[in-house]
Amino acid sequence: MRDQQAAGLQVAVHGHPNADTLLLWHPAVASDPEAVSALASRIATRSGLRVVVPTWTDGHDLLRSVRYARESAVHPPDQVSVVGYGAAGIAALSLAQHQRRLGIGLSRVTCVDGAAGLDDPISGRPLAEPGPAPVATEVDVVDTAGADWARATVEAWRAAGWAASLVPADQFTWRVSPSQ
Fold this sequence. Notes:
24% strand, eight-stranded mixed sheet, Rossmann fold
């Protein structure tokens, strides 16, 4: 792992620098950075990915971390994947919806612990209904506590033409602790 500064944003990078890039947005990075670091190391080791973990406090930081992940990747920048937890998961879905307007592309986005009532920290608004898929970005929603929300969300994305999958909670192992 190496910590770097990215335009005023602290980031930790795990894994080989030549590997595909996963941007990990976890809210516990502020309260339990060691646990998030251990999670990022596990992901990098088991998946063979380069994992970029920003220390973020708001939507502006999330957008800056996208720029950093894209600019520091050795592979095509539109191959970056984003995994977000809680409100950051909503932000990951919103980023997929607005990627072409933002001038970026994404390979995959994953929303973990998303739920109704969580606003997108980038826009400050609830997640909009998905429109037609502008590019071939895969969307995963992990079926956790808000199971009805997760199923309805995946159905809405599929209906709009996105490659969307519902991931059963017991098959999702990227948790800070096994009890999550």
